[in-house]
Amino acid sequence: MNTELAISATKRILGILETHKGKSQTPNEIEDYQIPHLRFMLYQMANYAATKDQDKFMRWLGFVQGAMWSLGMTSIEEMKNINLEMRGLAAYQQEDYAWD
Questions:
Q1: Could you state, in order of their start, the residue ranges of all structural domains in the chain?
Q2: Which of 13, 71, 81, 91 is the most interior residue, by most CB within 10 Å?
């Protein structure tokens, strides 16, 4: 795992999280508990990336991305792009996988 790319990915995901601050449908639950917990996890993930704890980083990445998707904060395609870029690969293009 490239540490710089992993930390960059956590920063991008944190940016997405912060853009949804105050936009939730049930502010008490999401704003008071879920967003702060996801933010905490992202900051910790940067530490795991720096210490080369790749297994924990990847588990937490999946959890954060899944939670943000289930809250409607992001799309699967956006998270795929972040994951690909974290690995140094080209961004996902939806038309590359058309079912036609």
A1: 3-89
A2: 13
